[in-house]
Amino acid sequence: MFTLFFVDELPTTVGGLYEFANEDANHAIRVLRMQTGAEFMLSDGQGSWSQVVATEVKKKSMQVRVIDSGFQQPLATTVTVVQALPKGDRAKEAIELLTEAGVDRIVPWASARSIGKGSEKFAITAREASKQSRRFRIPEVTETASTAQICEAIKVSDLAIAFHESATAKLSDQVSSHNVEHLLIIIGPEGGLTDEEITAFSDAGAKVALMGRPILRSAHAGIAAVSAVSALLKVW
Questions:
Q1: Number of H helices and number of E strands within the chain?
Q2: Sign of the C-alpha dihedral, residues 234, 202, 225, 140?
Q3: Same domain, 132 and 211
Q4: Do 46 and 127 form a contact (C-beta atoms < 8 A)?
Q5: For residues 193 and 10, what is the distance between their CA atoms, to the nearest angstrom?
Q6: Sequential DSSP letters for 134-157
């Protein structure tokens, strides 16, 4: 698949010329060494895309011609992942992995045992990971949410699953329907969910499930959960 870059104003007229001149263009020229004749993809990050070819390469920009253009429809199931904030670089790693897993929305969560902090750079991380994983939709990264806000999100979801290492119910036993429009997955911190958080989520309507015997790091658990639930719901 062609290399993907994002632009604010996406050219969609086939045969039309466009000046590609943002930071991504600079990266394409200076790092990837793209030359005249190189073909790649441009996207607005909201589903629209254009395949283009470079017709002129300058010092910090390039002129491209649109070869083809289209729109990628969203999947039937919208996936939101609530991620308890890990410490340091693991928070960035969690955002990258969730983006690569194809989630639509990432909600950093200040859980009782969280040791990490939110960052304005999370949105940049999601954007860069979207380019790497060739997805035309950049996931939304919200502001850090409280437990009370997560409970409200559970109430408006078709299916909400909180993963906890001490749960007795298997994930496969907690997914009984494939008709899920809004899916919410909750990933706890390294220290696990507290009893109070489990009770609050359960009371709000979430199911508590065991992911498996191995205990994953918080930053890695999200991609495993999204993969498993997507397969069970036949999203994949």
A1: 7, 11
A2: positive
A3: yes
A4: no
A5: 43
A6: T-SBPPEE---B-HHHHHHHHHT-
pTM of the complete model beyond 0.70: yes
d(CA 193, CA 82): 13
- With b for 16 or more beta-carbon neighbours within 10 A and e for fewer, the 136-169 pattern comes to bbbbebbebbebebbbebbeebebbbbbbeebee
Q: How many domains does the chain have?
A: 2
CA distance 141 to 108: 8
Q: Quick one: pLDDT at residue 168?
A: 82
The answer to whether 106 and 93 are in contact (CB under 8 A) is no
Which tokens sit at 203? Answer: 């009371």
Q: Are residues 155 and 82 in the same domain?
A: yes
How far apart (Å, rounded) are the C-alpha atoms in residues 11 and 224? Answer: 36
What is the domain-level CATH number for residue 15? 2.40.240.20
**Ranges of the chain with pLDDT below 50:** none
Domain residues for the domain of 154 are 78-232
Same domain, 32 and 124: no
In a shared domain, residues 213 and 114: yes
Q: Please list, in sequence order, all residues whose beta carbon lies within 8 angstroms of the beta carbon of residue 187, skipping any fewer than 6 positions away.
A: 81, 82, 83, 84, 94, 163, 218, 221, 222, 225
